[in-house]
């Protein structure tokens, strides 16, 4: 469904994205995981045609992506990192505006269906400025789905939202996946990528250095993580295939403060980049 062929984006001498190649299959839920400044948003902007690659080509459904390729743009929905709602308009009015942009004929029924799907019935006639952050995000997702796109790009869709709001959005995204949508999600919330995505790409300094399932990434590193303080009072991490191996490692070491726990995607990322996702 999506193919990136040797794509780079340079700003002056700085490479925000550096020679990235990637294939995303139809129906895949891909999480792009990396710290702030890793290149996630730049990559999304090239996916949707807002930025032109310095080098390389992006194909969506076997068609080259560009700013003016309206045929391709009709197939994608976009949820940006920052709000794209008109704050003076109600939820319903925002959705009318989005529907008319895509020239949807029977837009009233489509809006009602989307409002029901997103559980926004109680907010239909409220102005966007008066909604909570989590509800605003749900309206933004509703806007992105108004034309029933095949591919959805979400750039940090739950940033700054409380736990209950995030969980509601997770349920919506999981449902979208069961509908066969191809979804690309950028996030720096580890548990979000682990819970939602069937594939994860790890990106750092503009380069994708690993792609696999969350389960395989953790198994390759070691299912259990031994976390302990060394003599210099610095945290060290070691990874083991089973818990007993970790216990055997620390057995006999005097005055050691340690924890043995299940390995997370954060451990995987830290192991590869030696810096935590932040």
Count up the helices.
10
Low-confidence stretches: none
> Could you tell me the strand content as a percent range?
25-35%
CATH superfamily of the largest domain: P-loop containing nucleotide triphosphate hydrolases
Outline, from the CA principal axes? globular
Write the element-wise H/E pattern from the N-terminal end onward: EEEHEEHEHHHEHEHEEHEEHEH
Domain module count: 2
What do we call the CATH topology of the largest domain? Rossmann fold
Rounded to an integer in angstroms, the radius of gyration calculated over CA atoms is: 21 Å
Report the structural category. alpha/beta
Distance between the termini: 30 Å
What is the total tally of β strands? Answer: 13
The neighbouring-strand order within the major sheet is 6-7-8-3-9-10
Organism: Tissierella simiarum
Keywords: ATP-binding, Nucleotide-binding, Transport
Family: Belongs to the ABC transporter superfamily.
GO molecular function: ATP binding
């Amino acid at each position: 469904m999506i193919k990136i062929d040797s794509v780079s984006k340079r700003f002056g001498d700085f490479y925000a994205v550096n020679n990235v190649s990637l294939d995303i299959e139809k129906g895949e839920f891909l999480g792009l995981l990396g710290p702030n400044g890793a290149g996630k948003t730049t990559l999304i902007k090239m996916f949707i045609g807002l930025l032109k690659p310095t080098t390389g080509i992006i194909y969506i459904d076997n068609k080259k992506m560009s700013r003016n390729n309206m045929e391709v743009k009709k197939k994608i929905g976009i949820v940006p990192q920052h709000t794209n709602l008109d704050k003076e308009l109600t939820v319903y009015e925002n959705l009318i505006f989005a529907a008319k942009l895509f020239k949807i004929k029977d837009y009233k029924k489509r809006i009602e269906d989307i409002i029901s799907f997103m559980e926004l019935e109680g907010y239909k006639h409220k102005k966007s400025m008066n909604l909570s952050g989590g509800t605003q995000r749900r309206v933004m997702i509703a806007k992105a789905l108004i034309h029933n796109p095949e591919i959805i790009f979400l750039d940090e869709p739950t940033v700054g939202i409380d736990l209950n709001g995030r969980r509601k959005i997770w349920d919506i995204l999981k449902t979208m996946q069961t509908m066969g949508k191809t979804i690309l999600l950028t996030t720096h919330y580890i548990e979000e990528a682990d819970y939602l995505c069937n594939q994860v790409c790890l990106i750092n300094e503009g380069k994708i250095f690993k792609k696999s399932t969350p389960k395989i990434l953790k198994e390759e590193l070691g299912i259990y993580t031994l976390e302990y303080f060394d003599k210099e009072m610095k945290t060290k991490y070691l990874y083991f295939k089973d818990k007993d191996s970790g216990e055997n490692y620390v057995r006999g070491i005097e005055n050691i403060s340690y924890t043995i726990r299940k390995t997370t995607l954060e451990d995987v990322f830290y192991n590869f980049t030696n810096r935590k996702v932040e």
